[in-house]
Write a structure and sequence with these properties.
122 residues, de novo design (two linked rop proteins), single chain, mainly alpha, 77% helix, elongated
C-alpha cells in the first residue's frame, strides 16, 4: 500500500464525504425537512462517520487511528439504522433510500477494510 500523506486520499473518507452530501440533500426534502430532531441526528451521524476518519488519521498513532475508524464504522451503522425510519415514515423516496443504503454500505466496507489492514500490520 502506498504511503498516504493526507486523510483526503483515503477511499473510506472520500466515500463518507459522498454519503454526507447525499444525506444533506435527502434530509432537505419533503416531510423530512421539517422533522428537525431526526434530520439533525441523521446529519450528525453521517458527519461523525466522515470526521472520525479524518480525526483518527490526524492523531498519528496507529492505535488511535484504529479506534477512530471503529467509531466511524459505528456512526455508519447508525446512519444505516435510520434509513429504516425514513422508509417507515416515508420521508424519502425508495430511490434515495436505496442510494443511501449503497453508499453507507460502501463507506462501512472501506472503513472496516482499512481498520483490518492497520490491525494486522502491527
Amino acid at each position: 500500500m502506498a504511503k498516504v500523506e493526507r486523510f483526503e486520499e483515503l477511499n473510506c473518507w472520500k466515500k463518507s464525504r459522498e454519503l454526507v452530501n447525499l444525506v444533506y440533500k435527502v434530509s432537505d426534502k419533503g416531510k423530512f425537512k421539517t422533522d428537525f430532531d431526526l434530520k439533525s441526528q441523521f446529519r450528525r451521524a453521517s458527519v461523525s462517520s466522515m470526521n472520525n476518519i479524518a480525526e483518527g488519521f490526524s492523531r498519528y498513532s496507529q492505535k488511535e487511528f484504529i479506534r477512530f475508524l471503529d467509531i466511524s464504522s459505528s456512526s455508519s451503522g447508525e446512519v444505516k439504522s435510520m434509513l429504516y425510519i425514513l422508509e417507515d415514515l416515508e420521508y424519502a423516496s425508495a430511490a434515495d433510500i436505496e442510494q443511501l443504503h449503497l453508499l453507507v454500505d460502501e463507506t462501512k466496507k472501506l472503513t472496516l477494510a482499512l481498520l483490518k489492514y492497520l490491525a494486522t500490520r502491527k
